[in-house]
Amino acid sequence: MSATTIPFSTQVTVSLGERGYPIVIQPGLLGEVGARLKGLGAKGKVGLVTDRTVARLYAPEVMAALRRAGYRVHLITVPSGERAKTLAWMGKVLDILVKERFERSSFLVALGGGVVGDLTGFAASVYLRGVPFVQVPTTVIAQVDSSVGGKTGVNHRLGKNLIGAFYQPRAVLIDPVTLQTLPVREITAGLAEVIKYGVIADPDFFQYLEQHISAVLKLDREATAAVIRRSCEIKAAVVGADEREGDRRRILNYGHTIGHALEALGAYRSLIHGEAVAIGMVAEASLAVHLGYCQPDVVQRIRTLAQAAGLPYRLPRVSMEKMWTAMQHDKKVVQGTVYGVWPVRIGEVRIAPVQRDEFRQWFARVRKEHA
Ligand SMILES: NC(=O)c1ccc[n+]([C@@H]2O[C@H](COP(=O)([O-])OP(=O)(O)OC[C@H]3O[C@@H](n4cnc5c(N)ncnc54)[C@H](O)[C@@H]3O)[C@@H](O)[C@H]2O)c1
Ligand SMILES: O=C(O)C(=O)C[C@@H](O)[C@H](O)[C@H](O)COP(=O)(O)O
Ligand SMILES: [Zn+2]
């Protein structure tokens, strides 16, 4: 893949028939949010949902853009980070929508990272049995992954995203300039989902990341354009083929069986999502070797790339029993059996069950190696 052939402003389509939508990637797009909503036929009042950090950085610009297009705007702000992804905060957002008499035709705009996008999408899916919403993602994770595909929801103490709905946005409006204000830890965490796409679907993209990781980390213009576009293309293709995760979409969950268990065990405070996914990807690749699905060089390449991106890759101190119990809440569990996404080679994964005994043996081996 050559970075020089990548135009910065581009569009990717999520092909889902009447639920299909564009992903527009364009520097400066925040200033056009109002005009884009007009293009979608939005009328009346807009609910702009964001978190406290993003409100300070970008809400004035987006509110001005919406007002220029003739909209009345009601700003709804939640705390920053994973602690807002709860039923309690969902209730507070819904309270405001009710009190402010938002109507069925009112659009919600999710301005922020994956937390704001997942929470707003879920609120949009249930308020008046469904109001339209638009994603305006401002983190790497949100621009390459969470804003696309319609998985919305909130966490439960015992498991990640256990309460939610499939509900597609009307459009995804990506302004890559917003990434400039992200803390390094958040940029790095976002790269876990980017590396994931290489492992599950595109060996050339994985190789591109191996060769350009420092440019990507510096948010170099061409590298950023390449990463956002290719990630959105892969996600859009998978979602277009299997919207509700009947089968193929499960590949997007690579690294998440263990990753989500680690997030829940840390009460959603010790690891942020991308970090947990990075550890999960390396661990699940290593487990895939143990299960006989791939060779050790695959784990080595994934671990080396994660390390080069500055991601954590070692399992934290946690008991095997607690891990296994937390993994029972994975949405890929079928009749009590945990199904994992296992790399076969870079660019190809397979989905298969893992038994408790296999997990226990692998876990004991890893613990011994790291002792
Ligand atoms: N729905 C999906 O398909 C999907 C996919 C991947 C992840 N997710 C979910 O997304 C969440 C993680 O998303 P995230 O990493 O974006 O987390 P996040 O939404 O918590 O954002 C991370 C932090 O960055 C701040 N921030 C956001 N944009 C900023 C900017 N431009 N400049 C400075 N600071 C900014 C936020 O205030 C927050 O503190 C998790 O809950 C995960 O489960 C969902
Ligand atoms: O879009 C998907 O499908 C994914 O699995 C993408 C993941 O990166 C994302 O974290 C998703 O929210 C996980 O979904 P879940 O169904 O395991 O909660
Ligand atoms: Zn994820």
Q: Overview of this structure, please?
A:
With 371 residues, the protein is α/β, with parallel strands linked by helices. It is 47% helix and 18% strand. The chain has 13 helices and eleven strands. The chain has helices at residues 33-39, 52-68, 87-99, 114-126, 140-146, 184-201, 203-217, 221-241, 256-265, 273-290, 296-308, 320-327, 356-369, and strands at residues 10-14, 21-25, 45-51, 72-78, 107-112, 133-137, 151-156, 159-166, 171-174, 338-345, 348-354. The chain has a seven-stranded mixed β-sheet, with helices on both faces. Strands 7-8 form a two-stranded antiparallel sheet. The protein has a two-stranded antiparallel ribbon with strand order 10-11. Strand 10 (338-345) and strand 11 (348-354) form a beta hairpin. Helix 5 runs parallel beside helix 6 and helix 5 packs parallel to helix 8 (221-241). The longest helix is centred in the middle third of the chain and has 21 residues, at 221-241. The mean pLDDT is 96. Zinc ion binds at residues 145, 193, 256, 273, 277. Nicotinamide-adenine-dinucleotide binds at residues 51, 53-54, 57, 80-82, 85, 112-116, 118, 138-139, 141-142, 145-146, 149, 151, 160-161, 178, 181-182, 186, 189, 193, 273-274. Its EC number is 4.2.3.4. Residues 190-333 form the 3-dehydroquinate synthase C-terminal domain.
